[in-house]
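question for whoever is on the cluster today: can someone run the full assembly for these? three chains, 978 residues total. i dont have access anymore since they changed the login thing
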Amino acid sequence: MGGGQVGLTTRSAYWRGFAIPGVVWLCLFVVVPAYAVLAMALGKVNLLLEPVPAWSPGAWNPGWVSKAFSGALPGGEYWPAVRNTLVYVSVSLALCFAIGYPVAYYVARHAKRSKTLLIVLMVIPFWVSYLLRMLAWIGLLSSDGYVNKLLIDIGIAHPPDWLNGNAYSVILALVYGYIPYFILPVFAGIDRIDQSQIEAARDLGATPWQAFLRVTLPLSRPAILAGAALVVLPMFGDYYTNDLISASPRTNMLGNEINLFVQGGPEKNLGAALVLVLMAILAVLMLYYVYATARDARRLA
Amino acid sequence: MASGGVELRGLTKRFEDAVAVDGIDATIEPGEFFSLLGPSGCGKTTTLRMIAGFEQPTAGQIVLDGVDVAAVPPHERNVHTVFQSYALFPHLDVFGNIAFGLRRRRVGKDEVRRRVAEAIELVELGGLEHRRPRQLSGGQQQRVALARALVLRPAVLLLDEPLGALDAKIRKQLRLELKALQEEVGITFVFVTHDQEEALSMSDRIAVMNGGRIEQIGTPEAVYEQPATVFVADFLGVSNLMDAEAFGDGVVRIGEFRLRAGCGEVAAHGAVKVVARPERLALLPHGAPRENCVPGMVERTVYVGANLQVITRLATGETVQASIANTGESTTYASGTPVAVHVPVDALRVLAPSTGGAATPPGEVTAEPERAPAVAS
Amino acid sequence: MSLPARLRNPWGKPRFLVATTWLYMAWALLPVVVAMLFSFNQGHSRSVWQGFSIRWWWGDPSQSIFHDSLYTHALVHSLSLAALDMVIATPLGVLLALGLARWRGRGSGAANGLMLVPLVTPEIVMAVSLLLVFTQLSLVPFSLVHLGTVAQVVGQVTFSLSYVVVIVRGRLAGIGPEYEEAARDLGATPVAALRLVLLPLLAPAILASMLIVFALSIDDFVVTQYMSSNASTTTIPMFLYANARGGTTTPALNALASILVVTTLFGVGIAYAVYSVLGRRAAPSGVSALRELSGLEAAA
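^ ran it for u. tokens below:
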């Protein structure tokens, strides 16, 4: 029976062969490392004061994990970092929306002649190295940089020190760094909305503002969620923005704590455990995202 | 043995949720133009794909010139396909497309050139060898698809609704050309379509399919004039399907009128259906004494150029459609005119009631009933 | 009495939106332009303009980027990693894309999900996990990899794979199975059909994803830094990170960063051109090409 060769649909095994090298790679370098994090979080410190992962479940030591999770709760040692993270991410997301949505909306719906140019301009920051964009702001925000020059010109004699433990700077940098990740999916989503649906609303008596509220905004919800996901997920693991812009433990995010412990030396177990804390927070957010997307899909179907 | 004969024996294809082809049997003679006709979802395309080798039958055999090829992969069968969307390779020019199969067979360069030139001449595409598919019109693309398959001299050529994507006028012209081509080349053509006019005008024989089964196989005349089932009667043109009671010997009673039916199941008794093609009906002045007449009143007349479709409500309550040729006479069948509808004895056909097949509401000029697709065709 | 402007044209552009958009564009791009311009600064400052000079690019015999070995080394190492990443991730990703798109059996869903994981995890998680396996796990093949260039390549390939798959798979969906069926109908074996028909049609997407991988690699920071061993495995982003706040660094840093920007934009520009122009036959429109290239459809 020539089952293997005949018919595109029955030759699944043939195509599976194509996927095998990639899947093997991903198993080796995504799945096993994920387990390594778990094993290290549940590991211990050996006699040489080196952190050691516990590979077999029998040797799991929950001490570090409980330390990390309890420390991440309000009042704990790592709470400031977690709190900072939650605050910075929420504020940044709100700002990304406040700035990004109108821009995406304008380019998608109104820009006619300049649309292509605007799209190109929208995409460029997405591809400009994150570090260069931070470097740019370090230059502008330094004590003799243009921002302070401008403030002094306006009359503010002693402008604040932007680059030292200043949470506002960190938020500004996060927004600046991640907003392209928000704008592009939102733009794509709004662009996809059928113009005739909006016209129908106007035809039926809605003012432009009402048409926006009742048609465009709800229809762009999936795109907003997608943009939010693309911003929030990487931002939670961010540590370099803080290091570059603030360089002060006062504004540490969860990523900074993880970075310190893992790169530092003998506290890798704690670092790994904090990674689990991070993943737990993200898992909750992902669940919300999946729930919201499914609910939207049902409503808009 | 003459080549190009296909035999389908108990061919069945089951998908996870439905049966697409349900045990069909058919014998396609070498060199004939054979059509699979049916509504979307009837299984005709699935059958074609099984003959080509892209679907594997769940059960049954596909016998090509005496050999069961059900297990043979598509690239080894001497059967080639013209796809519905032509599937011309965009990155090759016309020559490259047509030469593709020859090159797979490692045919020498000179012979490739010769045979491609032959094929191009056959489909009348001279001068376009170096164009890309996207630079060709729909009709030209279709010819390339034909040439590409024919150059390989297959035993059987499969065509999957090849005229579907074309404008009506080009379609009519290509019908004649395709038929002429098939007669010239002498290869067996298996043609899938849902357009009954296409099937009737081009085929040597037609297999009418419905719900995965073949309802009838026959010549166009046989299938049109002597439909075996209600579905076939209804699918090909207007059928003027009516309920009747049969008393044997061709005597039927429609409403309170007794008529004589000359074909179909004349010996039947009990509840039956009768059909009469609209072009066989005659509209006589009311009260004219003739056998097989039913009085009625004209509801409306639809003018379609070549003829008049006169929709008449019979005294029995049924509505029938008569097709009167446009001879230039000014006889008007104004709405409300009383007439006597005469059905010649040999035009009234008795059918035993069968599953499937709904009455086509008269007044539809090109009656093609829409069936809800049960499975993907 | 004339109607207010708002009512005269029911589809007119609201001025507030126009202003916001152009202001945003300026805000998004001007700092970058300023930073790049500072690479031409006469003096040592990266925040105070002191005149025009190309000393940091070429003029200064010891401190310009092409003369200071630290800078040139970072540049060379970045380019090497990007080339290696491109060369490994692209074929692997194309194969994976083909497999995932057409494999329907058990496990295909899990494999698909696995491919998406790098796209949705924060980089630090990936970086930490790879660091741990390469330093703590004494099993082959992990024990064969020490931190350094090899580890950096492995890390970069791991996240680049997903982008290649997304781009190629999107294109595959646009092409459909018909052309290969036609090829096989005409006598080509499945492998020949793939080689002669599918791959030429996929070529624009493959090329585009190569360039995208290049751009991603050049700009990558977290994974590359975690996988590095010593100063010899420093890339441009790492170098920028280490020196951005230093008091002693010069505008040569800006010059180095400018190279990064120009290379990336150039690469992405070519990728877009290749994808939408060469792939015109069954190609998506310009806007959706941009979307696809941004690799956003996957996580969205």
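summary bc i know u wont read the tokens: Confidence is low (pLDDT under 50) at residues 355-377 of chain B. The interface with chain C takes residues 52-54, 73-76, 80-81, 83, 85, 87-91, 100-101, 104-105, 134, 148-149, 152 of chain B (CB under 8 Å).
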